[in-house]
Amino acid sequence: MSDERTLAVYESCSEDYTAMMDREARRDPMIDRFIAACAKGGRVLDLGCGAGHYARRMAEAGLRVDAIDATPAMIDMAARLPGVAARLGRFEDLSARDLYDGIWAYFSLLHAPRASLPDHLGRIAEALRPGGVLFMGMKRGAGGARDKLDRYYEYYERDELESLLTAAGLTPDAHWTGKSAGLAGHPQGWIVVQAHA
């Protein structure tokens, strides 16, 4: 993520965001699907981990967890979690090759500029081992805009996401959609796409 205004929102709202994620991560069936899709005891990356709620679930399931986030306040919290190796970093800092059995980019890449997404997906494809799985969550729609909290979002629909994933060398093979309010409090459509290296 390179938008400083968005990072500033997460830094200033870290406690509210963490409280919301305490509730969300416990009841979200997507994390169970991700864990089931990864090799048992495999190495995974939470890319844009926030305070580490999902990373904690991965570690509790026996996965070896790396976590990256660009917000210092979030990394301070994630780094305290048992079994989670958390560090400050941005999407463009991902430089691993054939390292991960799974990458969880759950409603994080939606903050990246649209023109940067192909590069980020290429980095993810390189970082995954053959057969490794990506779960990517995005908000549905078109174009880009700021929400009422001043966070910048890019909006996507399934066809565009699947085309971008395929161009990066990944194979989309499942998706789920829904609607939820999030931190800003107004319901929006979302999509989660599963793809394999």
Summarize the helices and strands and which ones pair or pack.
Layout: H1 4-12, H2 14-27, H3 29-37, E1 43-47, H4 53-60, E2 64-69, H5 72-78, E3 84-88, E4 100-106, H6 117-127, E5 128-139, E6 144-146, E7 152-154, H7 158-167, E8 171-180, E9 188-196
Give a verbal description of the structure.
Helices cover 35% and strands 30% of the residues. With 197 residues, it is α/β, with parallel strands linked by helices. Strands 3-2-1-4-5-9-8 form a seven-stranded mixed β-sheet. A two-stranded antiparallel ribbon has the order 6-7. α4 links the parallel β1 and β2 (64-69). The longest helix is centred in the first third of the chain and has 14 residues, at 14-27. 41% of the residues are buried. The mean pLDDT is 88.
Supply the key terms.
197 residues, alpha/beta, seven-stranded mixed beta sheet, two-stranded antiparallel sheet, 30% strand, globular
User: What is the C-alpha radius of gyration, as a whole number of Å?
Assistant: 15 Å
Q: Roughly what is the average pLDDT, rounded to an integer?
A: 88
Q: Which H/E pattern describes the elements?
A: HHHEHEHEEHEEEHEE
Which of globular, elongated, flat, extended, rod-shaped describes the shape? Answer: globular
Annotation field: number of helices: 7
Residue windows where pLDDT falls under 50 for at least 5 positions: none
Proportion in β-strands: 25-35%
Write out the strand line-up for the largest beta sheet, numbering strands in chain order.
Answer: 3-2-1-4-5-9-8
- Sheet with the most strands, sense and barrel status: 7 strands, mixed
Number of strands: 9
Q: What's the helical proportion of residues?
A: 25-40%
Counting helices, strands and paired strands, the structural category is: alpha/beta
Distance between the termini: 23 Å
Oligomer: single chain
